[in-house]
From TrEMBL:
Record's subunit section: Homodimer.
Similarity section: Belongs to the zinc-containing alcohol dehydrogenase family.
The protein's required cofactors: Zn(2+)
UniProt domain Enoyl reductase (ER): residue ranges: 23-351
Record-linked InterPro entries: ADH-like_C, ADH-like_N, ADH_Zn_CS, CAD-like, ER, GroES-like_sf, NAD(P)-bd_dom_sf
Listed Gene3D superfamilies: Medium-chain alcohol dehydrogenases, catalytic domain, NAD(P)-binding Rossmann-like Domain
Alphabetized UniProt keyword annotations: Metal-binding, Oxidoreductase, Zinc
Name this protein carries in UniProt: Enoyl reductase (ER) domain-containing protein
Top-level taxon: Eukaryota
Cross-referenced SUPFAM superfamilies: GroES-like, NAD(P)-binding Rossmann-fold domains
C-alpha cells in the first residue's frame, strides 16, 4: 500500500494555505521530508509575496492543487544539513526561489538552466519525485536539495533580499541573455511594480540608459527621483510615444495584465528585442508586420538557473540592489492579497514569518 504523505514526510510543519479557488489563506498543519544526504533544512524568517502566488491561490492559470502553501521568495537560517552537503553550513543565511528540483540530466540542466527542464519541480503546487505535493515558504521551515539553495552574502538584508529570488532573477536573466546588460544600451522597462522597480535598478547597475514606460503619470517622480531611471514615458500619451519611436535597444515587459504590445514594438530600434516576463492569463495580439520591418524580436524569459541566481544575488549585494518592500505579519496576508490585486504596494510585500507565524497557530 502506498505510504501517506505523513509517513513519507514525518517532520511536522506549520504554515498558511489556500484550500480552494477563493484564494483565502488560513493556518495549516502539514509535514516535510526528513533531511536527506544532500538536503538543507532552514528556519524560514521571511517570504516575499509574488504576483504568481495570487494567480496560483485563485487558480487563475488553471493548474492549482489544494491545499496550497504558496511562497517562492523564501529566506532564513540553516538549521540542519545532510552528510554530503558542501555548499552551506548550519547558521548560514540562505534562500530558495521558484524551484526545488529538475532531472539534472537534460541539455538544459547540464547548461545550468534547470528553470527550462521539462521535469522542473516548482517550489509549491508541484509534484515532488516521491509523488507528494510541494509546499512553499508561507511556513515555519523549508527543505531543499543543496543545488537549489542560494547563499546570501552578509551585506544582503534577508527581508529586502527575499524578492530577488523571483523578481530579481526574472529581470536579471533576460537583461544578460539578450545583450542589454551593457554600458550605453537603451532599455525600456514596462510597468513599475514588483518586477519593474527591480529591473530599473539592475539595468542602471549594468550601465544602461533606462526609460520607464507606464500607464500611470503619477509614477514619474518615483521612477526618476527614487529609482534613478533616466526617462519616463506615459504609454497612453501619443505625443510622448511618437517622440520615442525607434530609440530602444530592448524592452523588458513586466506587466501581467492584458495590454497592447504594438506600441512597444514601435519603440524598438531595428534588431530590438521585446522580452515578456509578465504572464497575462489571456493571449496577447501579436502584429507581425512591424517585426518584419525591422528584424525585431518578441521573446519570453522565465526566472533563471541556479548558477545564475547565485550570480544575481552576489551582483545585487555588490551594487546594493534590493527590493523596496512593505513588511507584514502573517495574519495580514489576506488583506495584502486584496491590496496586491489593486497594485496597492510599493513594491513587494514580505511576510515576517520568523516573528509572526507562530502566534497564528490555532
Amino acid at each position: 500500500m502506498a505510504k501517506s504523505q505523513e509517513e513519507q514526510h514525518p517532520v511536522k510543519a506549520f504554515g498558511w494555505a489556500a484550500t480552494d479557488p477563493s484564494g483565502h489563506l488560513s493556518p495549516f498543519n502539514f509535514s516535510r521530508r526528513e533531511t536527506g544526504d544532500q538536503d538543507v533544512r532552514f528556519k524560514v524568517l521571511y517570504c516575499g509575496i509574488c504576483h504568481s502566488d495570487l494567480h496560483s491561490i485563485k487558480n487563475e492559470w488553471g493548474f492549482s492543487t489544494y491545499p496550497m502553501v504558496p511562497g517562492h521568495e523564501i529566506v532564513g537560517e540553516v538549521t540542519e544539513v545532510g552528510s554530503n552537503v558542501e555548499k552551506v553550513k548550519v547558521g548560514d543565511k540562505v534562500g530558495v526561489g521558484c524551484m526545488v528540483g529538475a532531472c539534472h540530466s537534460c541539455d538544459n540542466c547540464v547548461d545550468n538552466l534547470e528553470n527550462y527542464c521539462p521535469k522542473l519541480i516548482l517550489t509549491y503546487n508541484s509534484i515532488n519525485t516521491d509523488g507528494t505535493i510541494t509546499y512553499g515558504g508561507y511556513s515555519d521551515h523549508m527543505i531543499a536539495n543543496e543545488r537549489y539553495i542560494v547563499k546570501f552574502p552578509d551585506n544582503m538584508p534577508l527581508d529586502a533580499g527575499a524578492p530577488l529570488l523571483c523578481a530579481g532573477i526574472t529581470v536579471y536573466s533576460p537583461l544578460k541573455y539578450f545583450g542589454l546588460a551593457e554600458e550605453g544600451k537603451h532599455v525600456g522597462i514596462v510597468g513599475l511594480g514588483g518586477l519593474g522597480h527591480v529591473a530599473v535598478k539592475f539595468a542602471k547597475a549594468f550601465g544602461a540608459k533606462v526609460t520607464v514606460i507606464s500607464t500611470s503619470p503619477s509614477k514619474k517622480n518615483e521612477a526618476l527621483e527614487h529609482l534613478g531611471a533616466d526617462f519616463f514615458l506615459v504609454s497612453r500619451d501619443n505625443d510622448q510615444m511618437q517622440a520615442a519611436l525607434g530609440t530602444m535597444d530592448g524592452i523588458i515587459d513586466t506587466v501581467s495584465a492584458v495590454h497592447p504590445i504594438l506600441p512597444l514594438i514601435s519603440l524598438l530600434k531595428s534588431h530590438g528585442k521585446l522580452v515578456m516576463v509578465g504572464a497575462p492569463e489571456k493571449p496577447l495580439e501579436l502584429p507581425v508586420f512591424p517585426l518584419i520591418m525591422g528584424r525585431k524580436t518578441v521573446a519570453g524569459s522565465g526566472i533563471g538557473g541556479m548558477k545564475e541566481t547565485q550570480e544575481m544575488i552576489d551582483f545585487a549585494a555588490k551594487h546594493n540592489i534590493k527590493a523596496d518592500i512593505e513588511v507584514i505579519s502573517m495574519d495580514y496576508v489576506n488583506t495584502a492579497m486584496e491590496r496586491l490585486v489593486k497594485a496597492d504596494v510599493r513594491y513587494r510585500f514580505v511576510i515576517d514569518i520568523g516573528n509572526t507565524l507562530a502566534s497564528t497557530k490555532p
